User: Fold this.
Amino acid sequence: MSKPSPDVYEQGKGMDAHNKVMREVRSRNDASYDSREPTRVWLDEDNTPDGFVDSLTIILNTGGCRWARAGGCTMCGYVAESVEGGSVAHEDLMAQIDTCLEHEQENADSPAEQIKIYTSGSFLDEREVPAETRRAIAETFGDRDRIVVESLPDFVDREKIREFTAQGLQTDVAIGLETATDRVRRDCVNKYFDFADFEEACSEASAVEGGAIKAYLLMKPPFLSEGEAVEDMKRSVRRCLDVEGCHTVSMNPCNVQRYTMVEELYHDGGYRPPWLWSVADVLEDTADVDGIVVSDPVGHGSDRGPHNCGDCDDRVQRAIKDFDERQDPSVFDQVSCECERTWEAVVERERSYSLPLAR
Assistant:
């Protein structure tokens, strides 16, 4: 698999130009963050192989994704919320976990069956989350049913996963694959690994009883037209769920985050987030797959998030949420709007060299 160093990431892959731009954009951020406070924590629900369950979602404040520090993905601004210095002590990370548990105790009637832990990088990268911390977190949540941790494929290792399954936890590793198309992942997302690396990570995770992979895909990275993005997602969903060990695809519509190349393009009139109709189209088209397909359009209805005309955004969002729970494409028959005709025209006529065709 690809080795986790910026030199290897860039060498011979034409990624150094993207990374140079991204480093310059990220350098404009001068915010600082408390290493003992999590970035975010919230309670929600999630569709899992065990059914629809309550989840406690935690975003730990770490030193940030090492790939983002090299330059990183064109759409990702999460590293802007990381602690300076590249690392956070074990004691500080566990203090963040304690804060999240206090939040759950204050806001939930009972402990969530599922824990989701993100770091805006790789939870399994021991430079972000030390081995001592990883094992302590496994013990802390050993009374739950399932845990989801985020990682690039480089760091997926069966022995690390076994630390969680040994506690009785069904363990999913969420990989930000973004697309099953290697060229789109390199040229539009600026991500270094190949689909073959994702397949190898699936094999590594599923080698452990109770281990599996959840693929995160990106709807409409920069430089793709609306129609290209839709077709890429349809292919990617199917290709991911054909890989043994991958049971869920979460399709994330791109939103405009601060200190990113996408934000630069957005301000220059060169990027529009995807239409919610596009999200619905992909979910409806892939409803026959053997696996779970969900989507959470963050920032829906805003100019910087996935949106339609403004009048129907909330209705389509509710239909998407309903689909996430029921996996029934007929929910989309219940929503309509005149702007759907505009979306159809955009999908048919927009070209990547002259986008966006409509705001």
Summary: The radius of gyration is 20 Å.
